[in-house]
Structures
1.
Amino acid sequence: MDTTGKALNITQGTGLGDYTASSTGALLGTTLAEKNNLSVGSTFTVNDQAYTVTGLFDAGTAFGNNAVYLTLPTAQTLARTPGELSSMIVTVNSMDNVASAKTALQAALGTAKADVTQGQNLQTAVSSLDSVKNISFIAFIAALGTAGLIILLIMVMLVRERRREIGVLKAIGAPNRTIGLQFVLEALVLAALGSTVGAAIASFASGGIGSALISSTTTTTASTGRGFPGGAGGGGGFPGQGGPFGGASQLLSSVTASASPGVIAGGIAAVFGVAIIGALVPALLTARIRPIEVLRGE
Amino acid sequence: MIEVKNLVRTFNSGDRTIKPVNDVSFVLEQGTLASIVGKSGSGKSTLLSLLGALDKPTSGDVVVNGVSLARLPDSRLTEYRRRDIGFVFQQFNLIPNLSAVANVMLPMEFAGIRKAARLQRARDLLEQVQLDPSKHERRINRLSGGEQQRVAIARALANEPKLILADEPTGNLDEQTGDHIIELLSSLSRDHNTTILVVTHDRVLANKADRRFRLQQGKLMEEPVRDRAVAASA
């Protein structure tokens, strides 16, 4: 784990094993190793103490890759502060547990010896996350409405272009329900195809959209990133924050762009509903006209 | 039996009122082959549309086997077109993106006939109208006018209707195929007791009819015909 609490990515060699025991092993950032021509198995000396490189890591930033990590006792010996810590990062598994973890740490360390503080931007982070979530939900509704309108207009146009076909079907005895069902089925197939394409595009694009919203220093992971179906695409919700939302991004180890099952189900239902209405209404209105009016009118 | 009673159809064209069908009355017994001749625009197609329940008359009535079409709701008129009527349109009115056989199967599908039976019957009908079997699966828009006309005739026969209304059924056919279609229609009325009313300019077809009408300025007049056997040998 680095100084921001993020897990280190070891690219070569191994870690330091037991981090609580003295050891002459060292983990080097790739930049630092490169500058000093060091690789796994190389040795270097600090204050007359030789250390062996056990592994190299990539922290993802130039600053992070210029660091060296030793086991805690070794570092304390090197700094001539045995048994002391200047700072310690504690990662809590849930924001709900932050307050209780803070209390427990303070009690364990004692108020005379240590100050326990939580990330200063935690509340900002949470409120910013909510803002992003709200913004993405509004964008989702707007995109859904636009997609619905487009689908409706396309279906009306498609049905109008096929007025003559409806007239012919009526003339040879097709009941209105058969005509309506045929157009509805075609609309559903179109909507399903559009949804599939839209979902595929959104699942790839949502990571990029998430990255645009979240600070570049925050890892963004698009795990489910799905937009609503119907070809309108777009990432679902973005429960994350950072970048334009303040420095709270450092508190976040990963942000996932995802849409909840409820939102996805709502989107699917809305798009299919619009497709059905868009096909059924004009088809049935046309089917109500006397066949000869449609056939004569072409 | 079809009874046409004082049938009138008017259209408004600007300030003028046009009457393509003006107080037309006649009775056709079941199994009759009748022809209607007349100049273009004389109202022949409009009359066929009224008999086929594709249009509603301004006044008057068509009574088919005792049932008044004027009193039937739309759903029953659709059923009438599906079960009792076979319509051959002058413009064919086939579904262009379907194959010939699929077009012929359509009315049977609406009538609830199962797929295997309707496929077999569609193929038989296309053979009856002498459409080359290699063209049965061909899309309509890849068939010639004459071939499309034969598909349209086959479709009209699909549900074994009691009444066939045909608008220029031989108009796009060569003489040999036209003669075959005339013979087919004639045998349907003779052997299957199907009533057939054709609008035609084809003198051979008109002469084959049991009864011959002329429509002139919306008025229908019956013309005398020769005996069918005599006409056939002529």
Note: The interface with chain A takes residues 49, 52, 54-56, 74-75, 78-79, 81-83, 85, 87, 89, 91, 93-95, 106-107, 110-111, 155, 159 of chain B (CB under 8 Å).
2.
Amino acid sequence: MKLKITYPPVEKHKLQRRHLLRIIRWPVLFIVVMSPVVNYIIGGKAWSLVVLMSIYMTWSLVLSPDLVEYNRISQWIKLISFSCSLLGMIDFFLAPGWAIDVVPIVCFGGLVITGVLFFTDIDRQKQNMLPMLFLIVIAILGSIVGVSIWRESSGWPLIIMGVTAGLLLLACIITLRGEFLRELKRRFHVK
Amino acid sequence: MDYALDSKLARFVRRIKPAKKKKKLAPPSPFKQYVESLSDEKAEQLREFFADFGAHCLIAKKETKKLRADFERAILHYINVGVSLDEALDLLAVKNLGSFYARPPVLWFPLDDAAKIYPLSMEHGIMSIFRLSVYLKQQVVPELLQMALNFTIRRFPSFATTLKKGFFWHYLDTTKRRFTVEKEKGVPCESLKVALSGSQSFRVIYYDNRISVELFHVLTDGVGGMTFLMALVSEYLRLTGVKTESDGMPWDVNAIPIAEEVENAFAKVPRSGSASGFMDKLAVQMNGKLSENKPSRVIHFKMNASELKAVAEKHNTTITVYLLTLMFLAGRAATDELHGEASIQVPVNMRKLYPSKTLRNFSMYCGIRLPIEETTDLQSIIVKIHEQLQKKASKESMDAMVMATVRLVKILKYIPLILKQRVAKVVYGFLGDKIFSNTLSNLGVIEMPQAMAEHIESVDAVLGPPITNRAACSIVTMNDIATFTITKTTLDPTFEEAMHDLLLADNISMTVEGSDFYEA
């Protein structure tokens, strides 16, 4: 069968992410399996859970990023959410007592930078609003729950986090007006 | 002494702070040079033209700049080939942009029922993409193709979109930008980068005399894709000076898009009867080693359509059944398995059962199955395949499959996307395309007005590379040339060689074209 070539030659393939993931998968899986085993054998605090969370964070943010909606707001919020979860885990499993103050401060910083990212390119970023709304809702809920649980501590980081989230939400609604509702309609459609 | 100190100081300052280099003035752009060479009257005409462009183009500055550059390049092309400025401006009339670039994006489209699975199941490097190509009788002029796309996109609002994530489902959000045309340099049906804000879910590429569109299946199916390609080619031919007559054709770029063209047509199918059609036994696969890069090769058999039809009629059947029969026989030759069932997936255009103008997905599929022990010769299986296709592609069977799809969508609709995605990946990864051995998609005969058809050699369709199947095939006919295309995912050439021999044995002459191996 004689074939006439009618397609252009293709440049030598760069290492595709798919191939890279296939190669990296095995050492990562090895660590995922081995760290709880080692942790169990040598005993002590549950540091392996922090290791697993860190691996998941690296995998999700660096090695296998989102296939849909990979934008500055979504990636920043992903980083903030993972960081807060990781800090919470370190506090709970390894060195307790500080996360109640640190996590809201990190979250507050995250909210401020999200606001800057959003309002400096609003025409484009209004299409990327959903992750920001999630962070806002989680921050408000976290603030309410945190303040009601830890009444005896001063709780000022929680209050500032909640107020910042509320203000950011308000700023979004005022700026986008009708578009805010239209965006919500799109994002929560079930058709 | 003072002077000496001064000069020492000056030398020192020069050493630590080198004098600013004189900024080299870039030579004026070819378009600017051309404008400078024009008479006042013509320059004024051009200025008015671009003022009109400014009124039609109110998108982001960066995109406006790119669009303007497209116009400039196209004007220069016309001037270089001897077309007068008047004629060039007439062909490129700004009114062809319509109001697409002048209005902010407001439309959004939920995915149709068939499209919902595609973003859920995609992975890095694995995406449901298909490609449709037109071969012209002349080399493609990239400047005019880009302008043709700039003018055509307004006709297809559901294509001018970016895939977005909702809380429950993905959806398509309108994006107003300059959509790009690229020179072909990659592997056919390569994954698209749809993640960034404003990314396009299709690509338009050209190579020699070929114009191709590669579309992510979330946008459309073969029929919608072909309509888009024909609109693009029709507009391109108009820009090359061909008197096209697209009035009333589905690809008339001047027609106003209607709601029916972007509807989820599955809603038209009556909700009654049973639901079935997705699950099946695992099918026997061809045995070649799966290639790292997919597809490993693309092969086109270009045949005389009348000859092919005559041979099919000689066997008292249709072209689809005849080709399916040959595919079963060729598949049998390409596997070492001695037992089991081979299965070929056949997409069914639902528009034939439920007339619809939709340009979104409106196809289902059926699986034609045969035990490989029985796949011995053409005569013994052709009738069985004919009967199976008639039964499985019938309205009742398709209704049942649509029903199953609709029910599944209904069950899943209130489950957050993040959970659906995880489950879909596991299920799809487990099953994938393993219930089929191959695919045959027949896009039928593409009818074109005579004035346009004269400038077109042929068309072809390339299915995206399957995951487990070693081949996926399609056929499409135009200008009496039927192009049978095989997308391969293995270097083992048995299947295509067997197909070639079987066609030759029936005295069907053909030319064989295609790509080199993408994996040596």
Note: The longest strand of chain B covers residues 341-349.
